[in-house]
Amino acid sequence: MDKAFTKGLRLLEALALSEQPRGVTDLAGELKLTKSNVHRLLMTLQSQGYVRQIPPHSTYELTTKIWALGSHVIHRMDLINVARPAMTKLAEITGETIHLSVLEDTDVVYVDKIESAHHIRAHTSVGMRAPAFTMATGKAMLAHMPDDYLERFRPHLRRYTETTRTTIKELREDIELARAQGYSAVLHGEWREGIAACACAILGRSGELVGAIGMSGPDTRVKRKQIREYSVHVMEAARTIGAALGYSNRQTAYSGVRSAPADPPPSHQSRRAP
Fold first, then answer.
1. Count of H-run helices and E-run strands, the chain
2. Which of 9, 42, 50, 65 has the most crowded CB, counting CB atoms within 10 A?
3. Which pTM was predicted?
């Protein structure tokens, strides 16, 4: 067990439970640590943005960073619980693997999934990360981010499969297409070979991006026709989850969604795999 780490956690707990800022001597007495030890831990926590010093008496209190981290965890748990019924329905309709993902910087993180009953299926696991620029759920979420967000992918663009999009220009084309049709479509995997998918972003109470829901399966079974048919149900699942989270302004958020979305231009689809 890392003793320094444990001491730091105990110090965080002590500050979190305090109703007012605390001094070094006070904290040292409660935690049965030396004052130099407590001061060193406080300086480390302060440098990382978890603690701030209150003048003029050199007392310390927590910042809202702990709260923000906790809010992310609660938010994610709420999303998983709320999304399950829609995921189950989508799995029954499509018969394929259903994913619930969130965006973390340049990655998507799978926070829940329902496995396909087919023997041949997309193999992923909850907690797994993947490059957002190669994934259907990733591109669906990026369609709701500011245009300049794509610049953070520039140093990470690399080819994983023959159809990986490797330039910002190509990635921007995919994002514009996702915005226009309301979902991101995959015909051939960009991160792993042989995977077809489609996904739609999920918006929260204030219209903020909270995640994405998508279905995926082998491209030998999930063809362009199936993607077009399934996309309607994927978008409906995203709307249902968003509504359950408190979002109601669907027209603004899904202005590009059509009840019967048209296929992207064949020349573009043949070389893309979001």
1. 9, 8
2. 42
3. 0.68
